[in-house]
Amino acid sequence: MNIFQLRYIVALDRYRNFVKAAESCGVTQPTLSSMIQKLEEELDVIIFDRSFHPVKPTRIGEKVIDQASVILFNVDQMNELIAEEKERGKGEIKLAVITTVAPYLLPNLFKFCKKNYPDISLLTQEMTTVQIIEKLKKAEIDMAIAATPLIEPSLLEVPLYYEKFLVYISPEDPLYKEEKIVASKMPLDNLWVLKEGHCLRNQIFNFCHKQASTSAIYEAGSIDTLIKIVDANGGYTVIPELHVNFLSEKQKENIRSFTDPIPLREISLIIRKDFVREKMLNIIADAVKQVIPSHMLDSKLKKFAIRL
Fold this sequence. Notes:
Number of strands: 12
Distance between the termini: 31 Å
Order of helices and strands: HHHEEHEHEHEEEEHEHEHEEHH
Structural class: alpha/beta
CATH architecture of the largest domain: 3-Layer(aba) Sandwich
Number of helices: 11
Strand content: 15-25%
CATH topology of the largest domain: D-Maltodextrin-Binding Protein, domain 2
């Protein structure tokens, strides 16, 4: 068994096509096929069921491929760790960000990295929290930014900042006359929320101390959409603090704060516990410190670099 064979089976799983997988690995199709077959013979298992078109992994093959992905992740980490020691600020970072954080963070994060670390290749995707956990466990991404805690023993969370929730209310809604809103007493009848799969939706119901009622709750795909729905149809929604900068001056008049205790969400950098690229981790953390207002930052992040 060698690293090349592991790369070949991961590539074939990704493309489900021998020719495309071979091209991605820079080898001929016969070479890739032969090396995968030798690996199967060595392990005495069938990794891919070739009777399907496109080809697909067997049950045991899926487990072998998952483990191969983790091994390759650690090999790549070792290579980049050595490269970091030789020359700072070069390499590739595969970063995932939840969709309710990405609009506020990514534009200026890209700007910061481009200016200060032009040799860093930042590959970023928006994902749900469930997708992020799965991708991290399979070592398909390096790190993620999401709301925490996740309560995942295999992952390490580094708090970045804490963000208040605010209420955006239509002038036509009875809540509009209130100066401050009591979270636990918010009626669900006219509440607009994000669709299933967004952690922000669950957080809203948690601090409302109520369960979702499908007959009373209307769902949207983004916070921008929620704002537009409230403007056009009345009712109200809950938005993160950083979204206020996206509102017009007239829309800002529709913002109300919560009474104490003020609902907050913790946003953290999340990595596997075997992650070793400390410098890359601090590059992203430094970028966040430049983007997020100082009063929101985690107190330890303000003072110290991240140590693994």
